[in-house]
Every structure is written in structure tokens, then in C-alpha cells.
Design brief:
CATH class: Alpha Beta
Number of helices: 7
Mean pLDDT: 94
Structural class: alpha/beta
Strand content: 5-15%
Number of strands: 6
Strand order of the largest sheet: 1-6-5-2-3-4
Order of helices and strands: EEHHEHHHEHHEE
Shape: globular
Largest sheet: 6 strands, parallel
Helix content: 40-55%
CATH architecture: 3-Layer(aba) Sandwich
CATH superfamily: 5'-nuclease
């Protein structure tokens, strides 16, 4: 696996990119302001990719992870704010105005993300699932390995802030803050 920092990487219209869920969270999610340096680096990379008309892909898995993670972060904040630490996500949170507001917000974020990225088939039919399962480890989970394999098949650069993927044997280029 080849690792480039954003500052070392030059965006080219000939390259294709796939952003990991954690990168979208830095740019758009509730944690966006928590690490301003990373947020700025990833947002600038996104702008550069769009401006140079390089191909930016997104998969249904990344969208699903993003939506679920944002709503779970909002749920954790709601539990803390209400003191209802034993609340159930579906039973207690989904019926609240806070959930409705969070859902509306995440839907708007996803629509914006989809406005400048291309939907990528997940290649489930062409990826060696046994190899993915065999590559799952104490550090890399199924989704980590799966997205790396999608990048291999699609010849995409993987933009990720997840150190877990470094343990995966691959030839792809990873770009990180």
C-alpha cells in the first residue's frame, strides 16, 4: 500500500477517488469542527478533485455508514443532553424532534455529496469475498477490507483517515491528512 499525505498528492483528472466514511464525517458530519486541520485538508482536497474534474466515487456502503454514524453520534449527544443514558435508539430517539432534525440534516448532506460524486457499483459480484474474509483481522474489519478491494478493482485512490487499513495487503494508493 502506498501512502501519500494530502500535501504530497497532486490531483489529476486522470485519477479516480473513493472517500472513506470517516473523511465525509470530517467534511460534513457532527464531528466536522472537532479537528479543524483535518477538516480543512479534506475539504480542500474535495474542492481540488471537483475543480479539476477528477472522478469522485461513492458506494452504497459508504453512504449507509455515513448516515448511520451521523445519526448515532446525534443519538449519543441526545442521551447526554437529556440524561437518558439508557435510552434505546429505535424506541426512544426516533420519535423525537431531535431525530427528525438530525435526519433532515443528514439527508441534505447526502444529497450534496451525491451532487458531485458518482455512484459506484460495489463490485460484490467481482470481488473475491473469501479473500476479504481471510483479510479481516484485529485491526481491519470487513468494511475496511471491502473498500480497499473496491479501490483495487476500480483502480481508485482511497482517501481515508483510518489507520486500520494500513494492515491490509494491497497495492492501492491511500491519501490521508
Amino acid at each position: 500500500m502506498r501512502i501519500d499525505t494530502i500535501n504530497e498528492h497532486t490531483v489529476s483528472p486522470m485519477n479516480s477517488y473513493l472517500f472513506d466514511t470517516n473523511v465525509w464525517l470530517y467534511i460534513y458530519g457532527p464531528m466536522a469542527g472537532s479537528e479543524k486541520r483535518k477538516q480543512k485538508l479534506y475539504a480542500n482536497l474535495l474542492r481540488d478533485i471537483v475543480d479539476k474534474k477528477a472522478c469522485l466515487y461513492i458506494t452504497s456502503m459508504v453512504l449507509s455508514e455515513y448516515i448511520n454514524r451521523v445519526l448515532r453520534i446525534e443519538f449519543d449527544q441526545w442521551k447526554e443532553n437529556t440524561g437518558n443514558l439508557n435510552a434505546d435508539y429505535k424506541r426512544d430517539f426516533r420519535s423525537t424532534s431531535e431525530y427528525t432534525d438530525s435526519l433532515a440534516s443528514v439527508k441534505a448532506q447526502v444529497k450534496e455529496i451525491l451532487s458531485f460524486s458518482q455512484k459506484r457499483p460495489d463490485d460484490f459480484n467481482s470481488i473475491n469475498i473469501e479473500s476479504i474474509i481471510d483479510s479481516i483481522s484485529n485491526s481491519a474489519d470487513y468494511n475496511d477490507v471491502y473498500l480497499v478491494r473496491c479501490c483495487e478493482v476500480g483502480k481508485m485512490c482511497f482517501v481515508s483517515d483510518d489507520s486500520d487499513i494500513m494492515s491490509i495487503n494491497s497495492t492501492i494508493k491511500v491519501i490521508k491528512a
